[in-house]
Amino acid sequence: MESKKYQVFVSSTYSDLKEERRKILDILFMADCIPAGMEAFVATDDAQFEVIKKVIDLCDYYILIIGKRYGSVNSSTNCSYIEMEYDYAIRQGIPVLVFAIDEAAKLPKTKIEQNADHAEKLKAFREKALKNRLASIWTPGGDLGGKVAISIMKAKQEIPRPGWQRAVDFDEASLRRQIMDLHKDKDELARQLEFETREIEIPIQYKHGGQTNTRTFKLPELFEIVALEMTERAATEQEIVSALKKQLATLPLSDWLQFDDTQIVKKILFQLKKLQLIEQQRGADGTNVLWRLTSRGESVLDDLVLAKSAQT
Description:
The chain is α/β, with parallel strands linked by helices. Helix content is 46%, strand content 18%.
């Protein structure tokens, strides 16, 4: 009997595919897999989606079930959370198994997308996902379970993944040393970041009641705003300016924000770059400068989001 268990993320719209999801979870259990999915991790905002990304990172395989609904749409990306999950799994190099419903299948109106704009997005998403070499079509009434069973067994044979093993299968002393080393590295990174940022303050001028005022922000506060703009893609400097204005304008004493110092955003970006939290890249045209999070920046952002979640 195989000692490894493989964690599989199951992604789909929920209310219209409840029965299909239940059958797939049963099949995964029988195939020595550990299902993970939206029943426990429902994305409703950017912060919660960051948590879901961490769950996907821990998975060996990713199963996408496409029906005839597009699902909840993220207001920032204008994409459904299901499509965002899929795109993230692809970027992380996780093997993706796609099962799209036969377009000719007849379904109740409640299981069909009624929003015309979302229906177009669903069509484009479906076409994109079906380009995956591990994609197939399913029809309501019985063949989805069989397709999933065959596909997951084939994936395990052809695309080896780390999987999970019982702790007794490992050298306990070696495993403890690795854990201690990881904790030590994380603590050192946290101490270094705290030391580097605690004294850094950025003065920003804003207009209120016809008067020009100045408010000082700690760099970590500004980093969180900037970083959330870069979680799904690289961002232009203008997009970062817009994000800062939008977020800071909601703070007390700010009717609306005006960057009187045109270099203020460059100062913020320079400090974050110096701390190795963000980095530059060239756009597709080779001229436009974009900013994106480094792996260190992603780790720091995760810590900020989790700390906030623990406080609420």
